[in-house]
Design goal:
Layout: H1 8-17, H2 42-46, H3 50-68, H4 75-99, H5 106-181, H6 183-204
Amino acid sequence: MNSKLLSDDEALKKANAVNRFDNKANTVSWIEPNKNSKKFKREDLNDLSIEQLQNKYALAIDQLRAFGDVPDGARQFVGQHASKLFSFMLAIRTTIKSKATPEQNLFMEQFEDYRKKALSKENSSNSALKMQVNNLTQQLESLKSARSKDKSLVKLRNMELADNRERMIHIEFKKLVKERMGEIAYLSLIQEADVIADTKIALKEPKADTEG
């Protein structure tokens, strides 16, 4: 029986129908580990050659990088699988170190060097960012302190201006009294004010104990 030749559209529909990732349902079953897959044991790794181990290690690195591109909403589904993959990579690395000659082990040394450089760069970036945050925090605190100091200075200046104004009013008032009432009346008022002030001060002072 001759099979019918599908058009491009029909072929695309058929391919989407059997795809493990259902775009319409937005499922993530395609990234879940296959429960029926064979689990590697340490003795299985020991049976592999150095080249085979290195290839598996490189493949595992690619898979681990791919997990970094998984959308945030799907991270929870790949977290456990990524952890198992990392453990598998450590097992491969241990096996390679136990079997490899110094020349063959160069691959692992280079990888470790790249990894350390990447971590160092990341830590350096984090440190630089932390320093920027600290600097900005210090600048903010300095601005707050300066603003508080400015407010205190403004308040003090306003008080000084008020005191100066009050003294100026008092001086000008005495001049006006002298000009309009004459110096004799002015001196009389001053003497009367002195008596009133002394009387009020005497009333405020505590009375001495006269009992003896």
